[in-house]
Amino acid sequence: MFTRRSFLKTCALAGSGIALPLHPFLRTAHAYALLSGAGALSDPALQFKFVESAPNALDPAFLFKDLNSNGRPVQAPNFSLRARETVQETGLVDPHSGRRLKTKVWGYGADTVSWPGQTFQVMSASAGGAAETVVRWENELQGRKHLLPVDTSTHWCYSLHGDSSVNGVDYRQFSIERDGVPIITHLHGGHSDYQFDGNPEFFYSPDGKVKGPQWDFAPDGFTNTFRYDNRVRAGSLWYHDHALGITRLNVYAGLAGFYFVRDEWDTGLPRNPLGLPAFPYELAYAVQDRMFTRRGELFYPAFPGDPFYEDFIDGEDAELPSELFPHGGPTALAEFFGDHIVVNGKIWPKADVEPRHYRLRLLNGSDSRFLILRFRVAASLAATDLEGAGSPLPFYVIGADQGLASQANMIDRLVFEPGGRYDVVIDFADLAGQRIIMENIGADAPFGGDFGEPFDPDDVFPDRQTDRIMAFDVTMSFEQAVPDSFDVHAFNDSAGELGFGTQVGEPTATRKVALFEGKDEFGRLQPLLGVVNADATATAFTWFQPPTETPALDVTEMWEIHNFTGDAHPVHLHLVNFEVVGRNEIEFAEGEPLSVLQHNGALGAVAAISDISVGAAVSLGPNEGYVENAPKDVVTALPGQVTRIKASFDKRGRYVWHCHILSHEDHEMMRVLGVD
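Structure (tokenized):
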């Protein structure tokens, strides 16, 4: 990873007659890609910025078709959806010919599918909506090849056997070539019964021919018809694939979308009781990062010469046996950072807006990238970068993840973790005729808590384009028929009266868990979860080992998340929302490596941790860019700290908790969360 050693190398194809691009970061990748037949990679500096219109995931045309045509929440939500391959335009062009390129992706949808998938919008039962949403998820990925390179050496769907297969089935008999790509959709933030939660071991292949081992223990056996609890408050949920060991690939291919819950206060309609901007002044954007080939295909590194391979494989002295990794791959890599920013499937798009308040429902759907958001007035309406841009604009964060905040926070920068959602209100009233750029001041590297310039040169792409996300052009006339009624003081009064924010009771138990960085049997970096012991030591576990996080039903627990790694991790608990209580510094000693059992019986290693002690409190709040006074389900656990959260566990069953860096959860940074 960039923070450990320099990745940027240069190379040439001697005597090949092939001219490599001048973009330094891409040279090695392009050299290999040309030889492999993948084609040269797209140079992000040559792609247009702020030309494509950003699709609004809350536009009635983006909602599932069985919702009312006016975009209101459906009253009897019952959907039959599919995951399928499609082709769509992302805004990429051939820089030589100017021809628009098409990209093969996977998407969710009904009659048609898209990346991101169309949006669910449902009414909470408290506001008269149905008690549950029923969704039938059809796996129609009929091709016998993944869009991206699959590392079959890891703990994934078709590698389960022995102790790692709880139903005794040897899943090594199955393959994508014979049986198709397995999926399982997770409603992230859903208060779901465990068999509908999207547990990674509940995967299934096209037509359900191959079923994950946990289906053998589900109350009614296998089903692809899931039921989601709507007896919850309004919030920003999202759905995405969660198949064991290939979540990062299936999501990268396009399997993700929004799921919004409305209630009697946050109705999504004009003249709502909270005075919140409503469509067309409410915009929903999923921010992701990607790499593409020059032909417009999705590109994901996994072979020698690809971006990050040298750092994560050669640089870690990993040894990949040729019988498992012909030509050095495909192999999982510890993290991924794309050099193209994509918003709702479009690269660096723009939105034309009026001079008024807008509500932005934002999702960080990236694999590994922490974003640090700011909004700045560009030097001109035609500007495509931040040169000469103004000072950061203030904006309000009024909610996060699963609900509205206890009060609006005015800030000018926001730490935006992978998997997190934030509910933002920004005022364009005094900015008519100007372009406002949504800026990212986070690096192209693992996040350790620091951000902003000056960057270490090894932490950012040369000539990087990832410092900008999208633009808002204040070029539309103010619609007089629709009042701009957002008032932050009125919102804060309502938030206090109605009890917005977290509603978690006092904990009656404390659980000490831990984050580690080890190595697998090949010497590849392997992030892990585990526990802190009573003797001030810590123990790391892989996914399939017996569960250690087993809260009792209807108990509220304090979780103390100790981060013994060098990077921040966005920690996600299924089933619950939680309150972020606080953070403290920790000290600890690292000893000789201890063995860690792998899914295949081999042994990895992790440094022994001992002499753990808790130090001074760490103050992180809105002034530092952290907004956590809302019902959260992802929390940023910073390195060298213990992060405290409290949550109530009110459904029985087998859930999971994990790091939401997708490359981490796919390589063992995930454990069972069993409520009994």
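Confidence is low (pLDDT under 50) at residues 1-37. The two ends are 39 Å apart (CA to CA).
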